[in-house]
Specification:
Blueprint: H1 3-20, H2 29-34, E1 97-104, E2 107-114, E3 117-121, E4 126-127, E5 131-136, E6 140-145, E7 150-155
Antiparallel strand pairs: 1-2, 2-3, 4-5, 5-6, 6-7
């Protein structure tokens, strides 16, 4: 066995012995408090009346007049429940722009622009399976948003019939 290992075993053995060594009876907390302090007041005596008085804690379950405060209360990280009534669903804004009107006898056709697409519609027609043309008046076109059954009005800007 090498010198380093022997030294390591000796240090380990001394550590175990020191940890298990019985404590002498005169090394209690009261014994330490009775001895005068080492330092500036070497000759001064210990004045017990100036020292704070320690009181024993009450047994568990009993409380004194002091209010007990929970320092670490349990808390929930879930969002609080929303009690407001859900809003009534609304149709999206109309994607159409009025492009003009064409009348052929008693039939009235309207040109609606949707981005780059142009739709020629009359009352009763369905556009993109989403909107149905209900009425065509001189100043407005009434459409129904089919998924919700809500009516919307598209202003034409004209107040006189053609």
């Amino acid at each position: 066995m090498s010198v380093g290992r022997r030294l390591l075993w000796i240090v380990l053995l001394l550590t175990v012995v020191a940890a298990l060594w019985p404590v002498a009876e005169n090394d209690s907390v009261e014994g330490v408090a009775d001895r005068p302090s080492i330092g500036r007041n070497r000759g001064a005596s210990l004045d017990r009346s100036a020292a704070p008085q320690l009181r024993a804690l009450p047994p568990q379950g009993e409380t004194r007049d002091a209010k007990i405060v929970d320092l670490f209360p349990s808390q929930s990280w879930t969002a609080p429940a929303v009690t407001a009534a859900p809003e009534k669903p609304a149709a999206p804004a109309l994607p159409f722009v009025y492009g003009g009107r064409y009348t052929e006898g008693s039939k009235v056709f309207v040109f609606l622009s949707e981005g780059t697409k142009m739709h020629t519609v009359r009352p009763g027609d369905t556009v993109n399976s989403t909107y149905r043309i209900e009425t065509i008046a001189p100043d407005a076109i009434t459409l129904t948003y089919l998924p919700l059954g809500l009516k919307q009005t598209l202003q034409t800007g004209s107040t006189t019939p053609p």
